[in-house]
Amino acid sequence: MNSNSASLGSQNPAPEHSESSLPALHAARSGNRRSTRSEATRTHILNTARNLFNEYGTAAVSTNRIAAELGMSPGNLYYHYAGKRDIIRDLLAEMIAQYAQHWEQGGAGDQVPGLDHLRQGMLHGSELAWRYRFFGRELVALLRADAELATAYRQAYQHRMAQWSAAAEQLVQLGLLQPQSPLPDLTAAVWLVTENWFTFLEITGEADRPDKVSRQLEVVYAVLEPHLTPAARQLWKDRDRDEA
Amino acid sequence: MNSNSASLGSQNPAPEHSESSLPALHAARSGNRRSTRSEATRTHILNTARNLFNEYGTAAVSTNRIAAELGMSPGNLYYHYAGKRDIIRDLLAEMIAQYAQHWEQGGAGDQVPGLDHLRQGMLHGSELAWRYRFFGRELVALLRADAELATAYRQAYQHRMAQWSAAAEQLVQLGLLQPQSPLPDLTAAVWLVTENWFTFLEITGEADRPDKVSRQLEVVYAVLEPHLTPAARQLWKDRDRDEA
After folding, report:
1. What spans are recorded as compositionally biased (Polar residues) (chains A, B) (predicted)?
2. What is the CATH classification number for the domain harbouring A95?
Protein backbone atom coordinates (compact mmCIF):
# COMPACT_ATOMS: atom_id res chain seq x y z
CA MET A 1 0.00 0.00 0.00
CA ASN A 2 1.35 3.38 -0.96
CA SER A 3 0.22 6.78 0.22
CA ASN A 4 0.69 8.12 -3.31
CA SER A 5 -2.51 6.34 -4.27
CA ALA A 6 -4.38 8.63 -1.91
CA SER A 7 -5.86 10.93 -4.53
CA LEU A 8 -9.61 10.72 -4.87
CA GLY A 9 -9.74 13.04 -7.80
CA SER A 10 -10.61 16.09 -5.75
CA GLN A 11 -9.87 19.43 -7.36
CA ASN A 12 -8.81 20.74 -3.96
CA PRO A 13 -5.94 18.58 -2.76
CA ALA A 14 -5.03 19.11 0.89
CA PRO A 15 -2.26 21.69 1.12
CA GLU A 16 0.96 20.49 2.71
CA HIS A 17 1.53 21.27 6.35
CA SER A 18 2.48 24.91 6.93
CA GLU A 19 3.56 26.44 10.20
CA SER A 20 0.85 29.08 10.27
CA SER A 21 -1.94 26.49 10.21
CA LEU A 22 -0.79 24.52 13.23
CA PRO A 23 -3.02 24.55 16.30
CA ALA A 24 -1.95 25.27 19.87
CA LEU A 25 -0.98 21.68 20.72
CA HIS A 26 1.90 21.84 18.26
CA ALA A 27 2.78 25.51 18.43
CA ALA A 28 3.03 25.58 22.24
CA ARG A 29 5.58 22.80 22.36
CA SER A 30 7.62 23.82 19.38
CA GLY A 31 8.38 27.37 20.50
CA ASN A 32 9.09 30.37 18.32
CA ARG A 33 12.84 30.29 17.86
CA ARG A 34 13.03 27.26 15.63
CA SER A 35 14.90 27.78 12.39
CA THR A 36 13.31 27.17 9.01
CA ARG A 37 15.74 24.30 8.50
CA SER A 38 14.71 22.69 11.78
CA GLU A 39 11.06 23.11 10.76
CA ALA A 40 11.75 21.37 7.46
CA THR A 41 13.40 18.50 9.31
CA ARG A 42 10.40 18.08 11.58
CA THR A 43 8.07 18.03 8.58
CA HIS A 44 10.30 15.39 7.00
CA ILE A 45 10.19 13.30 10.21
CA LEU A 46 6.40 13.61 10.41
CA ASN A 47 5.87 12.57 6.78
CA THR A 48 8.17 9.57 7.14
CA ALA A 49 6.57 8.48 10.43
CA ARG A 50 3.10 8.83 8.92
CA ASN A 51 3.97 6.63 5.96
CA LEU A 52 5.46 3.97 8.25
CA PHE A 53 2.49 4.10 10.66
CA ASN A 54 0.08 3.76 7.72
CA GLU A 55 1.99 0.79 6.37
CA TYR A 56 2.83 -1.12 9.55
CA GLY A 57 0.80 0.40 12.41
CA THR A 58 2.21 2.49 15.27
CA ALA A 59 3.06 -0.48 17.53
CA ALA A 60 5.41 -2.01 14.96
CA VAL A 61 7.32 1.23 14.19
CA SER A 62 9.98 2.41 16.68
CA THR A 63 11.66 5.82 16.69
CA ASN A 64 14.87 4.00 15.69
CA ARG A 65 13.12 2.66 12.62
CA ILE A 66 11.86 6.13 11.72
CA ALA A 67 15.41 7.48 12.10
CA ALA A 68 16.81 4.64 9.96
CA GLU A 69 14.24 5.31 7.24
CA LEU A 70 15.30 8.97 7.25
CA GLY A 71 19.01 8.08 7.19
CA MET A 72 19.31 10.06 10.43
CA SER A 73 20.95 9.14 13.74
CA PRO A 74 18.54 8.32 16.60
CA GLY A 75 20.20 11.15 18.54
CA ASN A 76 19.33 13.64 15.82
CA LEU A 77 15.71 12.44 15.80
CA TYR A 78 15.55 12.88 19.59
CA TYR A 79 16.76 16.45 19.17
CA HIS A 80 13.45 17.09 17.40
CA TYR A 81 11.10 14.65 19.15
CA ALA A 82 11.31 13.20 22.65
CA GLY A 83 9.57 10.04 21.46
CA LYS A 84 6.91 8.35 19.35
CA ARG A 85 4.10 9.78 21.47
CA ASP A 86 5.12 13.34 20.56
CA ILE A 87 5.29 12.45 16.87
CA ILE A 88 1.77 10.99 17.04
CA ARG A 89 0.50 14.13 18.80
CA ASP A 90 1.98 16.34 16.12
CA LEU A 91 0.48 14.17 13.38
CA LEU A 92 -2.95 14.59 14.98
CA ALA A 93 -2.36 18.35 15.21
CA GLU A 94 -1.44 18.36 11.51
CA MET A 95 -4.54 16.40 10.55
CA ILE A 96 -6.82 18.62 12.62
CA ALA A 97 -5.29 21.75 11.10
CA GLN A 98 -5.83 20.39 7.61
CA TYR A 99 -9.45 19.49 8.36
CA ALA A 100 -10.05 22.97 9.71
CA GLN A 101 -8.55 24.62 6.64
CA HIS A 102 -11.37 23.61 4.31
CA TRP A 103 -14.19 24.59 6.62
CA GLU A 104 -12.71 27.87 7.79
CA GLN A 105 -12.07 29.06 4.24
CA GLY A 106 -15.82 29.00 3.67
CA GLY A 107 -17.27 28.47 0.23
CA ALA A 108 -16.80 31.99 -1.00
CA GLY A 109 -15.56 31.16 -4.48
CA ASP A 110 -18.10 28.44 -5.22
CA GLN A 111 -20.79 28.79 -7.84
CA VAL A 112 -23.18 26.80 -5.63
CA PRO A 113 -21.79 27.64 -2.20
CA GLY A 114 -23.64 25.26 0.10
CA LEU A 115 -23.63 22.04 -1.86
CA ASP A 116 -20.20 22.41 -3.43
CA HIS A 117 -18.70 23.31 -0.10
CA LEU A 118 -20.19 20.24 1.54
CA ARG A 119 -19.18 17.97 -1.31
CA GLN A 120 -15.64 19.35 -1.42
CA GLY A 121 -15.50 19.01 2.35
CA MET A 122 -16.35 15.32 2.07
CA LEU A 123 -13.72 14.71 -0.62
CA HIS A 124 -11.17 16.65 1.41
CA GLY A 125 -12.14 14.66 4.52
CA SER A 126 -11.72 11.44 2.54
CA GLU A 127 -8.24 12.40 1.47
CA LEU A 128 -7.26 13.17 5.04
CA ALA A 129 -8.83 9.94 6.33
CA TRP A 130 -6.65 8.08 3.80
CA ARG A 131 -3.55 10.20 4.38
CA TYR A 132 -3.68 9.57 8.14
CA ARG A 133 -5.39 6.20 7.96
CA PHE A 134 -3.46 4.71 10.91
CA PHE A 135 -5.51 7.05 13.12
CA GLY A 136 -8.80 5.65 11.85
CA ARG A 137 -7.64 2.11 12.53
CA GLU A 138 -6.00 2.60 15.92
CA LEU A 139 -7.91 5.51 17.37
CA VAL A 140 -9.44 3.77 20.41
CA ALA A 141 -6.08 2.36 21.51
CA LEU A 142 -4.17 5.60 20.84
CA LEU A 143 -6.67 7.77 22.72
CA ARG A 144 -6.69 5.36 25.67
CA ALA A 145 -2.91 5.46 25.86
CA ASP A 146 -2.55 9.25 25.83
CA ALA A 147 -4.99 11.51 27.68
CA GLU A 148 -3.61 14.65 26.02
CA LEU A 149 -4.16 13.14 22.59
CA ALA A 150 -7.71 12.15 23.61
CA THR A 151 -8.51 15.70 24.72
CA ALA A 152 -7.17 17.19 21.49
CA TYR A 153 -9.10 14.66 19.40
CA ARG A 154 -12.40 15.16 21.24
CA GLN A 155 -12.18 18.94 21.04
CA ALA A 156 -11.54 18.70 17.31
CA TYR A 157 -14.40 16.20 16.95
CA GLN A 158 -16.86 18.58 18.69
CA HIS A 159 -15.64 21.42 16.54
CA ARG A 160 -15.96 19.48 13.28
CA MET A 161 -19.42 18.17 14.17
CA ALA A 162 -20.52 21.76 14.80
CA GLN A 163 -19.14 22.75 11.38
CA TRP A 164 -20.92 19.87 9.64
CA SER A 165 -24.16 20.84 11.36
CA ALA A 166 -23.72 24.47 10.35
CA ALA A 167 -23.11 23.37 6.74
CA ALA A 168 -26.28 21.25 6.82
CA GLU A 169 -28.27 24.18 8.27
CA GLN A 170 -26.92 26.37 5.49
CA LEU A 171 -28.14 23.88 2.89
CA VAL A 172 -31.62 24.04 4.41
CA GLN A 173 -31.56 27.85 4.24
CA LEU A 174 -30.40 27.74 0.62
CA GLY A 175 -33.39 25.53 -0.17
CA LEU A 176 -31.18 22.58 -1.19
CA LEU A 177 -31.88 20.26 1.74
CA GLN A 178 -35.34 19.32 3.05
CA PRO A 179 -34.51 16.89 5.86
CA GLN A 180 -37.10 14.15 6.33
CA SER A 181 -35.24 12.89 9.40
CA PRO A 182 -33.76 14.82 12.34
CA LEU A 183 -30.72 16.72 11.07
CA PRO A 184 -28.35 15.52 13.86
CA ASP A 185 -29.11 11.87 12.99
CA LEU A 186 -28.50 12.52 9.32
CA THR A 187 -25.23 14.31 10.10
CA ALA A 188 -24.12 11.41 12.30
CA ALA A 189 -24.90 8.89 9.54
CA VAL A 190 -22.86 10.84 6.96
CA TRP A 191 -20.04 11.18 9.49
CA LEU A 192 -19.94 7.44 10.18
CA VAL A 193 -19.84 6.57 6.48
CA THR A 194 -17.14 9.14 5.67
CA GLU A 195 -14.89 8.40 8.65
CA ASN A 196 -15.05 4.60 8.46
CA TRP A 197 -14.92 3.97 4.74
CA PHE A 198 -11.19 3.29 4.44
CA THR A 199 -11.01 1.11 7.52
CA PHE A 200 -14.00 -0.79 6.12
CA LEU A 201 -12.14 -1.35 2.82
CA GLU A 202 -9.05 -2.54 4.67
CA ILE A 203 -11.08 -4.99 6.73
CA THR A 204 -12.80 -6.36 3.66
CA GLY A 205 -9.50 -6.52 1.75
CA GLU A 206 -10.53 -3.97 -0.89
CA ALA A 207 -8.41 -0.96 0.08
CA ASP A 208 -6.31 -1.09 -3.10
CA ARG A 209 -9.27 -1.10 -5.49
CA PRO A 210 -9.84 2.41 -6.87
CA ASP A 211 -13.47 1.61 -7.78
CA LYS A 212 -14.16 0.75 -4.13
CA VAL A 213 -12.41 3.88 -2.88
CA SER A 214 -14.45 6.20 -5.10
CA ARG A 215 -17.67 4.37 -4.15
CA GLN A 216 -17.57 6.18 -0.81
CA LEU A 217 -19.20 9.28 -2.30
CA GLU A 218 -21.98 7.12 -3.79
CA VAL A 219 -22.75 5.63 -0.38
CA VAL A 220 -22.84 9.10 1.18
CA TYR A 221 -25.12 10.20 -1.64
CA ALA A 222 -27.46 7.25 -0.96
CA VAL A 223 -27.90 8.68 2.54
CA LEU A 224 -28.35 12.28 1.39
CA GLU A 225 -30.31 11.93 -1.86
CA PRO A 226 -33.87 11.60 -0.47
CA HIS A 227 -33.35 14.73 1.61
CA LEU A 228 -32.12 16.89 -1.26
CA THR A 229 -34.46 19.09 -3.26
CA PRO A 230 -34.77 18.36 -7.01
CA ALA A 231 -32.53 21.40 -7.70
CA ALA A 232 -29.84 20.05 -5.40
CA ARG A 233 -30.00 16.59 -7.01
CA GLN A 234 -29.48 18.13 -10.42
CA LEU A 235 -26.51 20.13 -9.14
CA TRP A 236 -24.97 16.99 -7.62
CA LYS A 237 -25.39 15.06 -10.88
CA ASP A 238 -23.88 17.90 -12.92
CA ARG A 239 -20.90 17.91 -10.60
CA ASP A 240 -20.51 14.13 -10.98
CA ARG A 241 -20.49 14.56 -14.75
CA ASP A 242 -17.97 17.44 -14.60
CA GLU A 243 -15.62 15.34 -12.48
CA ALA A 244 -15.87 12.16 -14.54
CA MET B 1 -16.78 -0.06 31.34
CA ASN B 2 -18.73 -3.20 32.03
CA SER B 3 -20.00 -5.73 29.55
CA ASN B 4 -23.16 -6.11 31.64
CA SER B 5 -24.32 -2.79 30.26
CA ALA B 6 -24.51 -4.40 26.83
CA SER B 7 -28.27 -4.83 26.71
CA LEU B 8 -30.00 -2.65 24.19
CA GLY B 9 -33.45 -3.68 25.26
CA SER B 10 -33.88 -6.21 22.47
CA GLN B 11 -36.52 -8.86 23.06
CA ASN B 12 -34.24 -11.39 21.40
CA PRO B 13 -31.03 -11.51 23.44
CA ALA B 14 -28.21 -13.39 21.74
CA PRO B 15 -28.27 -17.02 22.88
CA GLU B 16 -25.14 -18.22 24.62
CA HIS B 17 -22.58 -20.11 22.57
CA SER B 18 -23.66 -23.69 21.89
CA GLU B 19 -21.53 -26.37 20.26
CA SER B 20 -23.99 -27.12 17.49
CA SER B 21 -23.86 -23.55 16.19
CA LEU B 22 -20.11 -23.31 15.79
CA PRO B 23 -18.73 -23.01 12.27
CA ALA B 24 -16.02 -25.12 10.71
CA LEU B 25 -13.10 -23.01 11.96
CA HIS B 26 -13.87 -23.99 15.55
CA ALA B 27 -15.33 -27.44 15.06
CA ALA B 28 -12.44 -28.69 12.92
CA ARG B 29 -9.84 -27.85 15.53
CA SER B 30 -11.74 -28.89 18.60
CA GLY B 31 -12.47 -32.46 17.48
CA ASN B 32 -15.36 -34.64 18.51
CA ARG B 33 -14.08 -36.47 21.55
CA ARG B 34 -14.09 -33.52 23.91
CA SER B 35 -15.97 -34.07 27.15
CA THR B 36 -18.84 -31.84 28.23
CA ARG B 37 -16.73 -30.64 31.14
CA SER B 38 -13.87 -29.70 28.86
CA GLU B 39 -16.35 -27.84 26.64
CA ALA B 40 -17.63 -25.88 29.64
CA THR B 41 -14.05 -24.95 30.58
CA ARG B 42 -13.38 -23.68 27.06
CA THR B 43 -16.54 -21.56 27.17
CA HIS B 44 -15.41 -20.18 30.52
CA ILE B 45 -11.97 -19.33 29.08
CA LEU B 46 -13.52 -17.64 26.04
CA ASN B 47 -15.91 -15.53 28.14
CA THR B 48 -13.13 -14.40 30.47
CA ALA B 49 -10.76 -13.62 27.60
CA ARG B 50 -13.49 -11.66 25.81
CA ASN B 51 -14.19 -9.52 28.88
CA LEU B 52 -10.47 -8.79 29.35
CA PHE B 53 -9.96 -8.00 25.64
CA ASN B 54 -12.96 -5.67 25.70
CA GLU B 55 -11.64 -3.90 28.78
CA TYR B 56 -7.90 -3.68 28.03
CA GLY B 57 -7.41 -4.63 24.35
CA THR B 58 -5.79 -7.83 23.09
CA ALA B 59 -2.20 -6.52 23.19
CA ALA B 60 -2.34 -5.82 26.94
CA VAL B 61 -3.84 -9.21 27.91
CA SER B 62 -1.51 -12.23 28.06
CA THR B 63 -2.60 -15.87 28.37
CA ASN B 64 -1.07 -15.81 31.87
CA ARG B 65 -3.39 -12.97 32.79
CA ILE B 66 -6.40 -14.84 31.43
CA ALA B 67 -5.37 -17.91 33.47
CA ALA B 68 -4.91 -15.77 36.60
CA GLU B 69 -8.34 -14.20 36.14
CA LEU B 70 -9.83 -17.71 35.90
CA GLY B 71 -7.88 -18.94 38.96
CA MET B 72 -6.38 -21.56 36.66
CA SER B 73 -2.75 -22.61 36.17
CA PRO B 74 -1.17 -21.47 32.87
CA GLY B 75 -0.52 -25.17 32.15
CA ASN B 76 -4.21 -25.96 32.44
CA LEU B 77 -5.07 -23.09 30.09
CA TYR B 78 -2.52 -24.39 27.55
CA TYR B 79 -4.20 -27.79 27.71
CA HIS B 80 -7.23 -26.08 26.13
CA TYR B 81 -5.62 -23.37 24.01
CA ALA B 82 -2.16 -23.29 22.44
CA GLY B 83 -2.10 -19.48 22.73
CA LYS B 84 -3.88 -16.16 22.49
CA ARG B 85 -4.19 -16.42 18.72
CA ASP B 86 -6.32 -19.57 19.05
CA ILE B 87 -8.54 -17.92 21.65
CA ILE B 88 -9.10 -14.95 19.32
CA ARG B 89 -9.93 -17.30 16.44
CA ASP B 90 -12.51 -19.12 18.55
CA LEU B 91 -14.03 -15.83 19.68
CA LEU B 92 -14.46 -14.80 16.04
CA ALA B 93 -16.02 -18.20 15.30
CA GLU B 94 -18.42 -17.69 18.22
CA MET B 95 -19.37 -14.21 17.05
CA ILE B 96 -19.92 -15.36 13.47
CA ALA B 97 -22.08 -18.28 14.66
CA GLN B 98 -24.19 -15.93 16.75
CA TYR B 99 -24.63 -13.51 13.85
CA ALA B 100 -25.70 -16.38 11.61
CA GLN B 101 -28.24 -17.66 14.13
CA HIS B 102 -30.60 -14.72 13.74
CA TRP B 103 -30.55 -14.64 9.97
CA GLU B 104 -30.78 -18.38 9.42
CA GLN B 105 -33.78 -18.70 11.72
CA GLY B 106 -35.71 -16.51 9.32
CA GLY B 107 -38.57 -14.34 10.48
CA ALA B 108 -41.21 -17.08 10.49
CA GLY B 109 -42.86 -16.17 13.81
CA ASP B 110 -43.03 -12.43 13.17
CA GLN B 111 -46.26 -10.54 12.71
CA VAL B 112 -44.56 -8.34 10.11
CA PRO B 113 -41.88 -10.69 8.85
CA GLY B 114 -39.69 -8.45 6.73
CA LEU B 115 -39.45 -5.31 8.82
CA ASP B 116 -39.39 -6.97 12.24
CA HIS B 117 -36.75 -9.39 11.07
CA LEU B 118 -34.54 -6.58 9.81
CA ARG B 119 -35.06 -4.50 12.94
CA GLN B 120 -34.40 -7.45 15.25
CA GLY B 121 -31.36 -8.28 13.15
CA MET B 122 -29.98 -4.77 13.70
CA LEU B 123 -30.57 -4.94 17.46
CA HIS B 124 -29.03 -8.40 17.58
CA GLY B 125 -26.09 -7.14 15.52
CA SER B 126 -25.69 -4.23 17.95
CA GLU B 127 -25.56 -6.53 20.92
CA LEU B 128 -22.90 -8.65 19.24
CA ALA B 129 -20.89 -5.58 18.19
CA TRP B 130 -20.92 -4.54 21.87
CA ARG B 131 -20.31 -8.04 23.24
CA TYR B 132 -17.22 -8.50 21.03
CA ARG B 133 -16.29 -4.83 20.82
CA PHE B 134 -12.52 -5.46 20.89
CA PHE B 135 -12.95 -6.87 17.36
CA GLY B 136 -14.51 -3.66 16.07
CA ARG B 137 -11.68 -1.62 17.53
CA GLU B 138 -8.74 -3.80 16.55
CA LEU B 139 -9.95 -5.54 13.44
CA VAL B 140 -7.41 -4.20 10.94
CA ALA B 141 -4.46 -5.12 13.17
CA LEU B 142 -5.87 -8.54 14.10
CA LEU B 143 -6.62 -9.51 10.49
CA ARG B 144 -3.18 -8.36 9.36
CA ALA B 145 -1.52 -10.47 12.05
CA ASP B 146 -3.39 -13.72 11.28
CA ALA B 147 -4.20 -14.76 7.70
CA GLU B 148 -6.52 -17.56 8.86
CA LEU B 149 -8.51 -15.11 10.95
CA ALA B 150 -8.68 -12.72 7.97
CA THR B 151 -10.03 -15.46 5.70
CA ALA B 152 -12.68 -16.48 8.25
CA TYR B 153 -13.71 -12.86 8.78
CA ARG B 154 -13.95 -12.04 5.07
CA GLN B 155 -16.00 -15.14 4.29
CA ALA B 156 -18.39 -14.25 7.11
CA TYR B 157 -18.55 -10.64 5.90
CA GLN B 158 -19.50 -11.74 2.35
CA HIS B 159 -22.10 -14.08 3.78
CA ARG B 160 -23.64 -11.45 6.06
CA MET B 161 -23.70 -8.82 3.31
CA ALA B 162 -25.59 -11.29 1.11
CA GLN B 163 -28.09 -11.88 3.93
CA TRP B 164 -28.60 -8.15 4.46
CA SER B 165 -29.15 -7.70 0.72
CA ALA B 166 -31.65 -10.57 0.69
CA ALA B 167 -33.50 -9.01 3.63
CA ALA B 168 -33.65 -5.67 1.81
CA GLU B 169 -34.91 -7.38 -1.37
CA GLN B 170 -37.59 -9.08 0.71
CA LEU B 171 -38.72 -5.71 2.08
CA VAL B 172 -39.09 -4.44 -1.48
CA GLN B 173 -41.19 -7.50 -2.40
CA LEU B 174 -43.36 -7.02 0.69
CA GLY B 175 -44.03 -3.45 -0.41
CA LEU B 176 -42.33 -1.96 2.64
CA LEU B 177 -39.22 -0.54 0.99
CA GLN B 178 -39.18 1.68 -2.10
CA PRO B 179 -35.48 2.42 -2.51
CA GLN B 180 -34.75 5.85 -3.97
CA SER B 181 -31.04 5.05 -4.10
CA PRO B 182 -29.23 1.90 -5.33
CA LEU B 183 -29.93 -0.85 -2.82
CA PRO B 184 -26.25 -1.92 -2.42
CA ASP B 185 -25.29 1.66 -1.46
CA LEU B 186 -28.13 1.84 1.05
CA THR B 187 -27.14 -1.53 2.53
CA ALA B 188 -23.50 -0.40 2.82
CA ALA B 189 -24.55 2.81 4.61
CA VAL B 190 -26.67 0.88 7.16
CA TRP B 191 -23.81 -1.59 7.62
CA LEU B 192 -21.29 1.19 8.31
CA VAL B 193 -23.54 2.87 10.88
CA THR B 194 -24.36 -0.39 12.68
CA GLU B 195 -20.84 -1.81 12.74
CA ASN B 196 -19.05 1.37 13.80
CA TRP B 197 -21.44 2.84 16.32
CA PHE B 198 -19.77 1.53 19.48
CA THR B 199 -16.26 2.34 18.33
CA PHE B 200 -17.54 5.83 17.48
CA LEU B 201 -18.93 6.21 21.02
CA GLU B 202 -15.65 5.04 22.52
CA ILE B 203 -13.68 7.51 20.44
CA THR B 204 -15.96 10.37 21.41
CA GLY B 205 -15.92 9.31 25.06
CA GLU B 206 -19.65 8.52 25.20
CA ALA B 207 -19.64 4.70 25.37
CA ASP B 208 -21.07 4.60 28.90
CA ARG B 209 -24.08 6.81 28.14
CA PRO B 210 -27.18 4.65 27.58
CA ASP B 211 -28.93 7.44 25.65
CA LYS B 212 -26.05 7.50 23.18
CA VAL B 213 -26.03 3.71 22.84
CA SER B 214 -29.73 3.53 22.02
CA ARG B 215 -29.38 6.43 19.58
CA GLN B 216 -27.81 4.01 17.11
CA LEU B 217 -31.22 2.79 15.93
CA GLU B 218 -32.35 6.39 15.36
CA VAL B 219 -29.34 7.06 13.14
CA VAL B 220 -30.03 3.87 11.16
CA TYR B 221 -33.65 4.97 10.87
CA ALA B 222 -32.56 8.37 9.53
CA VAL B 223 -30.88 6.48 6.68
CA LEU B 224 -33.83 4.14 6.04
CA GLU B 225 -36.86 6.35 6.66
CA PRO B 226 -37.13 8.10 3.27
CA HIS B 227 -37.02 4.73 1.52
CA LEU B 228 -39.79 3.14 3.59
CA THR B 229 -43.40 3.17 2.44
CA PRO B 230 -45.92 4.95 4.69
CA ALA B 231 -47.12 1.53 5.94
CA ALA B 232 -43.58 0.55 6.93
CA ARG B 233 -43.02 3.86 8.73
CA GLN B 234 -46.18 3.32 10.76
CA LEU B 235 -45.05 -0.21 11.65
CA TRP B 236 -41.63 1.07 12.74
CA LYS B 237 -43.23 3.77 14.93
CA ASP B 238 -45.61 1.25 16.51
CA ARG B 239 -42.64 -0.97 17.33
CA ASP B 240 -40.79 1.98 18.89
CA ARG B 241 -43.82 2.68 21.07
CA ASP B 242 -44.17 -1.00 22.08
CA GLU B 243 -40.54 -1.14 23.13
CA ALA B 244 -40.54 2.12 25.05
Report:
1. 1-13
2. 1.10.357.10
Interval A222-235: pLDDT, tens: 999 999 999 888 88
- Return d(Cα B50, Cα B48) in angstroms, integer: 5
Scanning B174-233 for CB atoms below 8 A from A yields 180-182, 185-186, 188-189, 192-193, 195-197, 199-200, 202-205, 215, 218-223, 225-227
Are A203 and B141 an interchain contact pair (Cβ–Cβ within 8 Å)? Answer: no
A144: which chain B residues are within 8 Å (Cβ-Cβ)? 57
| A55 part of a folded domain | yes
Domain count of the fold of chain A: 1
- pLDDT tens, position by position, B127-144: 888 899 899 888 888 998
Q: Do A185 and B141 touch (CB under 8 A)?
A: no
Residues constituting chain B: 244
| Predicted local confidence at residue A105, as pLDDT | 66
Structural domain of A211: 8-243
Distance of CA A96 to CAs A126, A167, B54, Å?
13, 18, 28
- By the 10 Å C-beta count (0-12 exposed, 13-18 middle, 19+ buried), A37 is classed as exposed
ipTM: 0.77
- Whether residue B5 lies inside any domain: the answer is no
* Predicted confidence band of residue B82 (pLDDT cuts 50, 70, 90): very high
- Contact yes or no for A185 and B222 at CB 8 A: yes
Residue B174 lies in a domain: yes
